[in-house]
Amino acid sequence: MSLSMHSASVPIFVRMMGNLLSWLDKAEAHATAKKFDAGVLLAARLAPDMLPFTKQIQIGCDAAKFGVARLAGVEAPKYEDNEATLDELRERIRKTIAFVQSVPADKIEGTEDKDVTVPRRDGTMTLKGEPYLKHLVLPNFFFHMTTAYALLRHNGVDLGKTDFLGALKT
User: Fold this and answer.
1) What are the backbone angles phi and psi of residue 160, rounded to the nearest 5°?
2) CA-CA distance, 119 to 145, in Å (whole number)?
3) Of 163, 168, 130, 124, nearest to 146 (Cα)?
């Protein structure tokens, strides 16, 4: 049996964003224990020219919602990109999880050869569904999730590999 487009996308996004929610809980607990405002973490960067923590989460959520929406041929919800607290970031993550879970699996299945057009700064790019998911959406999603994880780790939040991977379910 081949891997389905739905199983290669929605459950992956949901699991990782669920893990991200637990990272935010640990970040808040860390700030409380160390007696600093957790909001400081929202502006964290590893280098001066990189996007801050908040933007990493926004873009990661966008990768999931637009990836699923484009494959399914449905409209993605619009977010303001104005999150300024950990609670607001949690709400964005939860809304994204709810959206990707709301898209029926049969809208995503069979989209391997569907033309998917992606708007870009320099025009548009069209890919078939499978390469779109495997070579653009998933790497972009994991890049931003990993960067968010690294920013929290760099700032002393007690996270490890099991926090990144989450509980494995068989």
Assistant:
1) -135, -175
2) 22
3) 163
Backbone angles phi, psi at 95, to 5 degrees: -65, -40
Single pTM value for the model: 0.95
Answer yes or no: is pLDDT of 169 > 80: no
The tally of domains found in the chain comes to 1
- The two most distant CA atoms of the chain are separated, in Å, by 52
pLDDT tens digits for 27-50?
A: 999 999 999 999 999 999 999 999
* Residue 170 binned pLDDT confidence (cut-offs 50, 70, 90): low
Sign of torsion over alpha carbons 95, 98, 100, 102: negative
Q: Per residue in 134-154, pLDDT tens?
A: 999 999 999 999 999 999 999
Answer yes or no: are the C-beta atoms of 56 and 93 closer than 8 Å.
no
For 39, the token pair is 């909001």
Q: Which is it for strands 115-120 and 123-128: parallel, antiparallel or unpaired? A: antiparallel
CATH number for 76? 1.20.120.450
Range of the domain at 80: 11-162
Residue 117 host element (H or E): strand 115-120
Helix axis angle for 10-34 and 86-102, nearest 10°, is 170
The answer to whether residues 128 and 115 touch, using CB atoms and an 8 Å cutoff, is yes
